Amino acid sequence: MSSTNTPRALRAILASALVALVGGGCIALGYDFDRKPPLACSSVAECPGEDTFCGTRKCEQNVCTFVNVQPAGVKPLGQPVDDCQDLTCDGAGHAVSKPASDQPPKDASDCTEDKCVDGTPLFVPVDKDKPCGKGGALACDGLGSCAGCTAATDCGDDGPCVNWSCTEGVCLRVNAPRGTLVTDTVKGDCLAEGCDGDGNVVTLSFQDPMDDMDPCKDDICKDGVTVHEPAANGTPCAEGCRACTDGVCEMMCSPGFGCNDGVICKPLAQQPNGSACQEAIDCTSGSCVDGVCCENECSGKCMACSNQKTGQANGMCAPVIDGSNPDMDCGGSDVCFGGKCRCENGVKDGAELKVDCGGICAPCGGTWVCNGSNGCEGPIPACCSFEVNCFDCGNETADCSIVEGTLCTVEVDKPKSFTGGTFWDGCLKCKRMTCICQ
User: Any idea where the domains of the chain sit in the sequence?
Assistant: First the structure.
């Protein structure tokens, strides 16, 4: 089953709204189904924009329109409160934004004043020598930084959502990204403990919907609650040729499907994108992904083609729902955000020891290093080379991916021959190396 979370839904709202600020007010740009000439369509995929909290696209009588429209003034649940913007619905299916002076973002510095000016965040340095750091033991430098530290502990205490460092006498605070998971204590409630982007642990919308055990329904978290949407027509729902049709398990195959050897329903012919499939040959596109005909091969990590995994229309190749890892593309502990594995995004975020490794991510891919020289390739560094007459100079390079900072040995050569108790061509050569993260 699958889910969606509020941060992702809000990004969809902002993407479709395309807000422009004018003189302190605001307007929503983009195609307006109510005011422009009707836009013809044969499916909702041909209608511009995206579905949002404020309205859902629909192709009705071959014309694009919005349904499930929220009243004007309604605010999407869980919208950010630190972006200097206030998002509301306009009553026509669109989301519009206006400046909000009381919602400034926080730059995680004690030495700046966070402000909103006409919807734009500003971070103004406070006066020099204002106390800052842990217990107010340090002082602001008048340029927006807390100076005078000699160790990270002078600056503050680390936590699940915040990490302190001291660099050249200046305190640096790094907050875990908004939505970073801390713990999920209650399964199936669409909620979890996570980071708010300002270093605090808060309750967030999360992708752990309650499974209704109905094979003809996709379980998805939307706006903090579980919803059960119809699975793709043709989805098998019981033994024999029984399949889902419009969310109901029927005693026969769905229209357009036939019973294959009395075992499973198969398409009678090549099917359009979004239809259930078993093989690529079943689909007009030539791609069968996640059990539905997909617009392309959709082979990248954190990408999928089913509503169950992406929250988007079946057949559309899109990033999986933020915070999920449905195909284990990111291993057993990592999750996807924005179509990438969090631990493969090229950024040192969360509680990572290095960029994309260590901490909450997988162990660092270590290398053997001696005085800065790579010990796994090239000639043996003189500082690391010695010869011994022994049988058990073990090659311990496998430990490098597990333990950092351990002094071990690496096999370089094995004896070429052994006769009458004598080694020829020298004995085993070893070198001492220290495993570090690179």
Answer: 6-99, 112-175, 275-355, 366-437
